[in-house]
Amino acid sequence: MTDAQPDEVRVETIQKRVRVYLGGHLVADTVRPALVWENPYYPAYYIPVADLHAKLELDGSTRTSASRGEGSAYDVVVDGNTARGAALRYPESPKLSELVRLDWDAMDEWFEEDEPIYVHPRSPYSRVDILASSRHVRVELDGVTLADSRSPRILFETGLPARFYLPLTDIRMDLLRPSETHTSCPYKGNADYWSVRVSETEHPDLVWIYRTPTPESQKVAGLACFYNEKVDIYIDGELAPRPRTPFS
Fold it and tell me: The pTM is what?
């Protein structure tokens, strides 16, 4: 597989209204945002320069991308608020020259229509399906059974292995230790984690739970899931192979 060349980046203009705020002030308001796949997993929003309400001040630095070329960095200034180096433009790119990339974390709020969005834009090509099941799921680690359930909810997400969300009453909670790790997902919400202690060995962050997931993922609320990549999962008595993913 060869590296992408400049302007091989994938760009799609969509019809959602997107608004961005900094310090309570409107930075951008557009009904023609572009989704740009800077990596294979999810897109970033690029905003038409004409739809900016903030001022861009060139900061003198540049950043180079194999697929986008050389980008010029700008400070974003709006009503006395400044986000330094929070904007990028690629003036030599035919696809991106009229667009600006605003750093997601440097902004305070992002909205699609009137709904706040978190972490990163959701890809229109990613889907999450959650199905109730009666399959027998048993989770094991180092020969110790961690969970045994006949009422899993199975979450199917584009590009990832099926995940088995289990009732807490079907899990050996005495082997779980609360973790300080917390993650966020634009499709499912905010997750809390546990580590697992087996035979005096602690395995960090093997289990997670969405206590208050996003509306589209309510079916997994209060259920816990193990990393298929790091434990042995038996489905109807058959050992499932451990998948290879970025989480392995």
Answer: 0.86
